[in-house]
Design a protein that fits this description.
By secondary structure, the protein is an all-alpha fold. It has three helices and no strands. The relative contact order is 0.12.
Length: about 100
């Protein structure tokens, strides 16, 4: 359950960051259009620098100090190892026959 929760939360946060960045890009595009107007023949970069600064300051980044994906991989590896060992022990236990004379 811990693995599933960690994995789901991580992917939810990544999707949320991507959605926010996509919304930011659409807002920035509308800002560019309002600055330049419908005629994009004018190539003055000064007003567009404001939009680039806006995008840079408002971009959503995912900060992962725990390195969740690495921890998930380690937990998955431990789980797989444990299940393999348990499966082997169960097979050995089931295959052993004691004969008393």
């Amino acid at each position: 359950m811990l693995l599933d929760k960690m994995r789901d939360d991580f992917h939810t946060r990544v999707a949320l960051a991507a959605t926010k960045n996509q919304q930011l890009q659409s807002t920035a595009e509308s800002m560019r259009l309002s600055i330049l107007g419908k005629d994009s023949k004018v190539k003055d970069d000064k007003p567009l620098e404001v939009v680039e600064v806006y995008v840079k300051e408002n971009t959503t980044e995912l900060v992962d100090p725990l390195d969740v994906l690495r921890k998930v991989a380690k937990l998955q590896e431990k789980r797989d190892t444990l299940l393999t060992e348990l499966d082997t022990q169960i097979k050995v236990s089931n295959a052993t026959t004691f004969i008393e004379v």
